Amino acid sequence: MLFSTATGYALRALAALPEDGTFSLAKDLSKQLTLPGPYLAKILQGLVQADILESVRGPKGGFRLTRPSHRITVGEVVTAMEGPDAMEGCIMGFPSCGGDHPCPLHDAWSAVKTQVTSSMTEATIRDLQLMDFRNQKAAEGRAAKRG
Which are the contacts of 94, defined by CB distance < 8 A and separation ≥ 6? Predict the structure, then answer.
């Protein structure tokens, strides 16, 4: 996996949040997504610190997106979770890898980094929501054919 489990959980949780601005409790998201509750709550707090989520305490509180899902990029979430240098450095771990002293994978990794960075900048949380919706519909169609 290129990124941490926490980043995957963050993306799944953001895609599961309602678009209408209502608040969702961390425990409800945890149950819906079958993710560990305390760990997810910590991740959601990190997304609050990154200004991707808003949180409110109390009986009508929870978490919600700070802006529409089509305005939050996957890259923004990855940066919030992994740090700004997530895609930097040598894939083989050499400290001096670069244009003057490339490792054997330098050129290949540079091309991959460029493509991944571009894709993450273009993909949004809304795109993830739409993919999840399409996957659910496809699964329902397969189940109906079998039943």
Answer: 101, 103
